[in-house]
Design a protein that fits this description.
mainly alpha; 87 residues; 3 helices; 2 domains
């Protein structure tokens, strides 16, 4: 019985926080912070995350662990060189 009370208490407060977040998000959208440009860029970013996750899962499944490690090291090294040269 005690466990049920804690579960319903947590359920109520997690839903309460979610509803407060939705209200705040609605106010932000109503006040003009979500413009068409922001929403378009958000959709492109979401698409990039989905494509990147799918490609990463495919590569992770099909490349052996030893080779995958060197690919990750090369990517980190190349990224650090690019950051070092551009800043």
């Amino acid at each position: 019985m005690h466990y049920r009370v804690l579960s319903s208490y947590d359920f109520y407060h997690s839903n309460h926080k979610f509803i407060r977040f939705q209200i705040l998000q609605g106010l932000v959208a109503y006040n003009g912070f979500f413009t068409t440009t922001v929403l378009t860029d958000y959709c492109f970013g979401l698409g990039g995350v989905i494509i990147g996750t799918a490609l990463g899962a495919y590569v992770f499944k099909h490349i052996p662990n030893r080779i995958f490690r060197y690919i990750v090291y090369a990517y980190i090294g190349l990224s650090s060189v690019i950051i070092f040269l551009t800043n």
